[in-house]
Design a protein that fits this description.
The protein is of the alpha/beta class and 326 residues long. It contains 10 helices and 13 strands. It folds into 2 domains: 170 residues, Peroxisomal Thiolase, Chain A, domain 1 (3-Layer(aba) Sandwich), CATH 3.40.47; 145 residues, Thiolase/Chalcone synthase (Peroxisomal Thiolase, Chain A, domain 1), CATH 3.40.47.10. A 5-stranded mixed β-sheet has the order 1-7-6-4-5, sandwiched between helices. A 4-stranded mixed β-sheet has the order 8-13-12-11. The chain has a two-stranded antiparallel ribbon with strand order 2-3. A hairpin with a 3-residue loop joins strand 12 and strand 13. The mean pLDDT is 95. Bound molecules: acetyl coenzyme *A. Acetyl coenzyme *A binds next to helix 2, helix 6 and helix 7.
């Protein structure tokens, strides 16, 4: 049994925050940000938007592209490190907004590796025969947990959501999965402050804290190693990979990983320039855009790979089988 991807979706808030805007907020420059990260602009949610509202929009598009009704969904999983609140799960709010009345719902937090963990979890439920159709959302409003006076982090992140529908099928979907964690590195990248607020934004001092240099070094090594392991576990070689769809944190990290893997840079899907680091949402947004621009072909082997706070990292190989019902 397999858990084929039959629908993809994304949603980005309208409001654009450019590097020029950031120049007016902190001591930085467009050139520094572009040179060190590849990011030119990012999206910021309006006051009326939330992680669950962004996630519901992405989920709606994923259902449409799958040709399904919300009532067809058995389970909604939301990967996020910036939930609407500590509870209920943002997945429950997405389930309600979509009208997926039959579906169970829960969140997953593995920081920026959350989407790989969520895809793996949804796939297991299908492979075990428990559910037939799972909506896997990644949604973030990281702008509400950013210290907007810290130039070392505020230039990196953005808001957005992406989603896929997984359905029971003969072939397709995740062919291998590698997931790792090293909690000894927890202090390299974490959210400071109490974590029980209804609105994290209202809690003074709550924000992302990061040792950028150490995280950079870890990211390049972890993404390369876990990609290699996932590719080999799937019985494939690097040459068999059509595209790597990595967590979008920094263009330099993606370029270094491509170089170390011996993968031509055109086969590394990147949109970090437009959206910055949208954490758990970055892989499904990039996957959706790769489908939208016609890059993905039936039978393509795709590698999804992520790293982030935990420290946690992981990768998987997906067999792409096209969208919609068969
Ligand atoms: N504008 C201008 N100068 C800056 C800025 C900025 N926005 N930020 C830092 N600098 C300065 C530093 O203060 C430093 O100055 P100094 O030499 O006088 O001390 C100089 O630029 C170089 O700083 P570095 O930290 O060495 O710069 P680096 O090349 O490592 O780039 C960056 C920093 C972009 C943060 C990089 O380290 C990185 O991308 N790391 C990975 C971070 C990441 O991906 N985190 C997300 C993980 S996902 C998750 O789970 C949340």
């Amino acid at each position: 049994m397999a858990a084929r991807i039959t629908g993809v979706g994304k949603y980005l808030p309208q409001r654009v925050l450019s590097n020029a805007d950031l120049e007016r907020m902190v001591d930085t420059s467009d050139q520094w940000i572009v040179d060190r990260t590849g990011i030119r602009e990012r999206r910021i949610a309006d006051d009326g938007e939330s992680t669950s509202s962004l996630g519901a929009e992405a989920g709606r598009m994923a259902l449409e592209t799958a040709g399904l009704d919300a009532n067809d969904i058995d389970l909604v999983i939301c990967a996020t490190l910036s939930p609407d609140g500590m509870f209920p799960a943002s997945a429950s709010l997405i389930q309600d907004a979509l009208g997926a009345k039959r579906a169970a719902a829960f969140d997953i937090n593995a920081a920026c590796t959350g989407y790989v963990a969520a895809l793996a979890t949804g796939t297991q439920f299908i492979n075990a025969g428990v559910y037939k159709r799972v909506l896997v959302v990644g949604a973030e409003v990281t702008s509400r947990i950013i210290d907007w006076t810290d130039r070392g982090t505020c230039v990196l992140f953005g808001d957005g959501a992406g989603a896929v529908v997984l359905e029971q099928a003969e072939r397709g979907g995740l062919q291998s999965i590698v997931m790792k964690s090293d909690g000894a590195g927890a202090k390299l990248l974490y959210a400071r402050g109490p974590a029980s607020a209804r609105s994290l934004a209202e809690t003074e001092g709550y924000c992302i804290v990061m040792d950028g240099r150490e995280v950079f070094r870890f990211a390049v090594r972890a993404m390369e190693e876990s990609s290699r392991e996932a590719i080999s576990q799937a019985g494939l070689k690097i040459e068999d990979v059509a595209y790597v769809v990595p967590h979008q944190a920094n263009q330099r990290i993606m370029s270094a990983v491509a170089k170390n893997l011996g993968l031509p840079i055109e086969r590394m899907v990147s949109n970090v320039e437009k959206y910055g680091n949208t954490s758990s949402a970055s892989i499904p947004i990039a996957l959706c855009e790769a489908w939208e621009d016609g890059r993905l072909q039936d039978g393509d082997n795709l590698v999804v790979v992520a790293f982030g706070g935990g420290l946690a990292w992981g990768a998987g190989v997906i067999e792409w089988t096209g969208l919609g019902q068969r």
